[in-house]
Design goal:
Chain A: This is Electron transfer flavoprotein subunit beta. The complex is a heterodimer of chains A (264) and B (255). Chain A has 264 residues and is α/β, with parallel strands linked by helices. Chain A is built from 7 helices and 13 strands. Chain A has a 9-stranded mixed sheet, with helices on both faces. Chain A has a two-stranded antiparallel sheet with strand order 2-3. Chain B is elongated and about 70 Å long. Classes of the chains: A alpha/beta (264), B alpha/beta (255).
Chain lengths: 264, 255
């Protein structure tokens, strides 16, 4: 039994930044990288099932990203799991969620997992699209925004909780194999131990190109969800900033609060 | 409570059949939890263009252009959909003003295809009622976010809120950690503070999901150490600074 967990290295924009020459993204010099917060929860969910199954379940993290995206795989492997997969090709630089989903579908075809856990969304571009698109490409059932999973190896169905608006929870079952998109708060993600971090360095990471998966850049470009025309800094509202020493700021705030309260 | 349960297989099949029959240029969905669960699948299966969480839509010449926010709302991204006859857009709630008058569409019937759903509804579980306050009715709120740092720091903000006569709320990470009950969470998966007049946000950077529950509040005061935090784009007053130091000083004014 196997759970495949697609994870992503996300980009965070510096306070001051410039756009790329083509104006279609931020200049990479002004981007820092981080692991996507949602993926900590999806990976933890997989590890918990693996541990409860006592050796019957393998957990495999996979990422679509350049060389330095290997960090997010090592970060996962420091917590558990024996191997990772990284897919990259220069044609994937500006890949849309639909293109990533096509790539991941090929990985699923090779790996034959019983379940796939993705994060509900990634915090840089916030599409919330890749997991469900992957399920559609595979023709698999899927459930999004999952906050509870009851499944053990061999179960034909998983019983899930999904989080609706306003904190309402729906309990549903889904036939396996399935793709689940995992929501924050489903568990408390563990921290890796120092020993785990050290061991993770030795764990194998398979590297696949598009050609290894039988895909071409042209094919993916034809299936793009959209084309980026430009990025720009929006005109936004701006709070009236209260300056001064902390004491002065607090005094002004207190006056504002009293006034607002009195006026209401 | 929803009247009928959502089944992605059934919804996808129905929308795809309708799209096949009517060939729409655009299919608009709300950007809601259910559509997260099936709009991208409709696009993928139909071979349609797709953009989610769209905040503006326009035509440039003959080209459909959608705008969405990226990088924690710091930038906007404009996208188009070359050579796509149909485009799926999920639209962020409350960014478009409702029209004054109703339209008069021609309504016709369409038989949905029979589909075997591979998911099954079991039950709905209402959010925990802790016998705590109902924040949706609170007029004055002080909410804490990730900036609070540790569980033992929450209490001093509870005391500060009490001394102001404000109701204590929080953003998602605080409720997820169990530092405050879920019933105190403001935002998309928590409560919308519909009656709130003054909202003090301390250590809350302002995710889209949090702001969905409070951005309508007429007077928002934000205290955050990150000058670039999104919360300052919707706040009336802001302090760029340490929430603990400000709280310490504020206490003196309300004791």
């Amino acid at each position: 039994m196997k759970i495949l967990v697609p994870v992503k290295q996300i980009s965070v924009v510096d306070e001051d930044f410039e756009l790329r020459a083509d104006g279609k993204d931020v200049d990479p010099d002004y981007l820092d990288t981080e692991a996507n917060e949602w993926d900590d929860y999806s990976y933890e969910a997989a590890l918990e099932i693996m541990e409860a199954a006592d050796g019957d379940v393998e957990v495999v993290p996979v990422t679509v990203g350049p060389d330095d995206a290997e960090d997010v795989l090592r970060r996962c492997l420091a917590k558990g799991g024996d191997r990772g997969i990284r897919v990259w090709d220069d044609d994937l630089v500006d890949a849309t969620p639909a293109a990533i989903a096509k790539v991941l579908a090929k990985v699923v075809a090779k790996e034959q997992p019983d379940l796939v856990f993705t994060g509900t969304l990634s915090s840089d571009r916030s599409f919330a699209q890749t997991g469900v698109s992957l399920a559609a490409e595979l023709g698999w059932p899927h459930v999004a925004v999952v906050t509870g999973i009851d499944w053990k190896p061999g179960d034909p169905k998983a019983t899930l909780k999904r989080e609706l608006e306003g904190g309402l929870i729906e309990e549903v079952s889904v036939e396996c194999p399935a793709v689940l998109t995992i929501q924050l708060g489903i568990n408390t993600p563990r921290y890796a131990s120092l020993r785990g971090v050290k061991q993770a360095k030795e764990k194998p990471v398979q590297e696949w190109s598009l050609a290894d998966l039988g895909l071409t850049g042209a094919e993916l470009a034809a299936g793009a969800s959209f084309r980026v025309r430009r990025m720009y800094k929006p005109e936004t509202g701006r709070a009236e900033l209260i300056e001064g020493t902390t004491a002065e700021q607090a005094a002004r705030l207190a006056a504002i609060i009293n006034e607002l309260r009195g006026a209401a | 409570m929803p009247v009928a349960s959502f089944q992605s297989d059934v919804y996808e099949a129905a929308v795809l059949a309708l799209a096949e029959a009517r060939k729409p240029a655009v299919i608009l969905f709300p950007h809601s939890v259910d559509t997260w669960g099936y709009a991208p699948a409709v696009a993928m299966r139909g071979g349609f263009g797709c953009a989610t969480d769209v905040i503006d839509v326009k035509y440039d010449g003959g080209d459909l252009v959608a705008v969405r926010a990226v990088y924690a709302e710091k930038l906007h991204m404009e996208v188009d959909f070359p050579e796509r006859e149909t485009v799926v857009l999920t639209v962020r709630t409350n960014v478009f003003k409702p029209t004054e008058a109703d339209g008069s569409p021609a309504v016709s019937e369409f038989a949905a295809p029979q589909t075997q759903a591979r998911t099954e509804h079991i039950t709905y579980i209402e959010p925990e009622q802790t016998g705590d306050v109902d924040i949706s009715q609170a007029e004055y709120m002080l909410s804490v976010g990730r900036g609070v740092g540790e569980e033992e720091n929450v209490e001093q903000f509870k005391e500060l809120a009490d001394s102001l006569g404000f109701t204590l709320g929080c953003s998602r990470p605080i409720a997820d950690n169990g530092w405050l009950p879920k019933s105190r969470q403001v935002g998309q998966s928590g409560k919308t503070v519909v009656k709130c007049k003054v909202y003090v946000a301390m250590g809350i950077s302002g995710s889209v999901q949090h702001m969905a529950g409070m951005k309508h509040v007429p007077s928002i005061i934000a205290i955050n150490k990150d000058a670039e935090a999104s919360i300052f784009t919707i706040a009336k007053y802001g302090v760029v600074g340490d929430m603990f130091e400000i709280a310490e000083e504020l206490r003196g004014h309300f004791s």
